[in-house]
Amino acid sequence: MLAVHGGAPVRGGVSWPQWPQYDADTEAELLAALRSSRWSVSWYSPAGGKSRERLFGEAFARYNGAAFGVSVDHGSSALVIALEALGIGPGDEVIVPAVTWVAPATAVLRAGALPVLVDVDPETGCLTADHVYAAVSGRTRAVIAVHLACTVAPIDELAELAREMGLALIEDCSQAHGAQWAGRAVGTFGDIGVFSLGAAKTLAAGEAGAAITDSPELYRRMLMLRADSRGYSAHDPLPGEYELVELGEIMGGNYCMSELTAGVLLDQLPRLDAQHAHRESRTRQLEAGLAAIPGLTPIPVPAQVNRRAVYEYGLRFDPGTFGNAPIERVAAALTAELHTRVYPPRIPLPRSNLLRPHTKPRFAATWNTARATDRPFPGADHYCDHTLLMHHSVLLGDPRDIHDILTALDKVRTLAHTLTPADTSIPTT
Ligand SMILES: Cc1ncc(COP(=O)(O)O)c(C=O)c1O
Questions:
Q1: pLDDT tens per residue, the chain (429 residues)?
Q2: Nearest of 128, 176, 121, 173 to residue 386 by alpha carbon
Q3: CA 267 to CA 260: how far, in whole Å?
Q4: Is 310 helix (H, G, I), strand (E, B) or coil?
Q5: Going by C-beta distance under 8 Å and a sequence separation of 6 or more, which residues neighbour residue 120?
Q6: CA of 101 to the centre of ligand 1 (A)
Q7: Given strand 114-118, what is the order of strands in its sheet?
Q8: Is 74 in the pocket of ligand 1 (CB under 6 A)?
Q9: Å from CA of 397 to ligand 1 middle
Q10: 263 in ligand 1 pocket by Cβ < 6 Å?
Q11: Distance of CA 413 from the midpoint of ligand 1 (Å)
């Protein structure tokens, strides 16, 4: 019997790997930032030298093979300053995939432009060049390509199309830190790569973000945009000096990353590759086992991807694999078997409760439902109705964890006929 109906769960009493991960070294970094008395890049430097947020920006750029990195307080802020640095504003349209967290769409509104939601590949949830091409209008200025869950958008085609059509390209790598396409890090194909470094992400610091670019001009503009029109002084600050100077070439806001956060990130970044390698070996084990379960397949990853970054591991299922049970019931049944969340993707942005521009006067003035959302999104609907996701931390444990996941998938598949659509006793995820 399924655990959701009172049967014994596949996984009883064994905990999953904790996320985020930290140890005595993380505590030491955090304590050092605390004791430095320099809690903000905007505060003076008692001991002199670069701020931690600047050091993290540099280290993160190096990690990605980019020339410049800017630390910010959120991935959402990174999107806003990227759009503003590219000069995008009122009257402009920006193409945003219909399946993603809401931030890429809200960032476009915050920049004063109109997000035009575009359908996605039904198997990956990512934009394709064909979808983008069909949506371009005389007002389109940029594309935000999101590398979703555990795969990578077809970034070579998207970059080529953007170049041909004179559009800016922002890569949102919030779900793909460290993924590589043909040996090159995602985030370096477009004009700017943006990252969330929120608590759930594979590089995590609670609330944080970053942007990378190879352009000195975009770097300089993003520095000012995130620090109230200030940039770094020409020399490293001496003891007692401020590191930021008023440049005032473009008006900014305050999206600066705290020094305490930057301390945590300086500890976390060197761990990322080993964690990716660990997740990759569990992913391979999971995918080998999946081959024996009818109807279930991994989300496809383009052949050019030589290193994937799993943020949410995604499984696709053929229609009928779980009988006629709604996806929410299947997800709830798996969650009950495994004692860790298994969930469908968020509903597509055109129908999301989180995208309600008419609730804010500033956004309502820009919003245009007919242009932004009024069309079918069959790819997005298919992706969201046939995909199940799990957080990447389930791939950071030992092989037994994967055995449990496979056992639960097969058990729920076999007993799916007991999950009727009308069974309201089952909580949804
Ligand atoms: C694809 C994507 N873009 C942007 C963001 C926003 O990042 P933040 O929550 O750090 O503002 C997220 C966060 O979940 C995300 O997944």
A1: 999 999 999 998 889 999 999 999 999 999 999 999 999 999 988 899 999 999 999 999 999 999 999 999 999 999 999 999 999 999 999 999 999 999 999 999 999 999 999 999 999 999 999 999 999 999 999 999 999 999 999 999 999 999 999 999 999 999 999 999 999 999 999 999 999 999 999 999 999 999 999 999 999 999 999 999 999 999 999 999 999 999 999 999 999 999 999 999 999 999 999 999 999 999 999 999 999 999 999 999 999 999 999 999 999 999 999 999 999 999 999 999 999 999 999 999 999 999 999 999 999 999 999 999 999 999 999 999 999 999 999 999 999 999 999 999 999 999 999 997 656 555 554
A2: 121
A3: 11
A4: coil
A5: 97, 98, 99, 126, 127, 128, 131, 377, 379, 380, 383
A6: 6
A7: 68-72, 209-213, 192-196, 168-172, 140-146, 93-97, 114-118
A8: yes
A9: 25
A10: no
A11: 32
Cα(124) to centroid(ligand 1), Å: 18
Distance CA 3, CA 207 (A): 35
- What is the whole-number distance in angstroms between the Cα of residue 422 and the centre of ligand 1? 34
Residue among 337, 334, 328 at smallest CA distance from 427: 328
Does the beta carbon of 174 sit less than 6 angstroms from any atom of ligand 1?
yes
pTM for the model: 0.97
CB of 181 closer than 8 Å to CB of 187? no
Domains of the chain as residue ranges with CATH: 14-19+273-418 (3.90.1150.10), 24-271 (3.40.640.10)
Which of 174, 255, 311 should be mutated for ligand 1, with most atoms under 8 A from CB? Answer: 174
| Amino acid, single-letter form, for residue 156 | D
- Is the peptide bond prior to 357 cis by the omega test (within 30 degrees of 0)? no
